[in-house]
Amino acid sequence: AGSGIWMSLLLRPDISPESASMLTLVLAVAMVDAINEEVQDAKCYVKWPNDIVLNNRKISEIGRASCRERV
User: Fold this and answer.
1) CA geometry: angle at 66 spanning 63 and 71, to 5°?
2) Which residues pair with 44 in a beta bridge?
3) In b/e form, how buried is each residue of 43-65, taking b as 16+ CB within 10 angstroms?
4) Per-residue pLDDT reduced to its tens digit, 25-56
5) Is the preceding omega at residue 49 within 30 degrees of 0, hence cis?
6) Are 13 and 22 in contact (CB under 8 A)?
7) Who is most buried in 11, 21, 44, 66, counting CB within 10 A?
8) How far apart are CA 25 and CA 50, in angstroms?
9) 41: which DSSP letter?
């Protein structure tokens, strides 16, 4: 069996709920840019809408949930 890192990240950005939908895309592009910059011979890209693919293998999926109430 494989291994992996499973994690969640809680962000509380000071942006409108309408703009929050862009966070998934911005995060995906930032991850791909960082991987391509740091990993030699990396062929990393975003597979629409929220998968990160590295050398033809899915390595991450970015999910987003939102809540209008303060937690």
Assistant:
1) 120
2) 54
3) ebbbeeeeebebeeeeebebeee
4) 888 999 999 999 999 999 999 998 789 999 99
5) yes
6) no
7) 44
8) 7
9) T
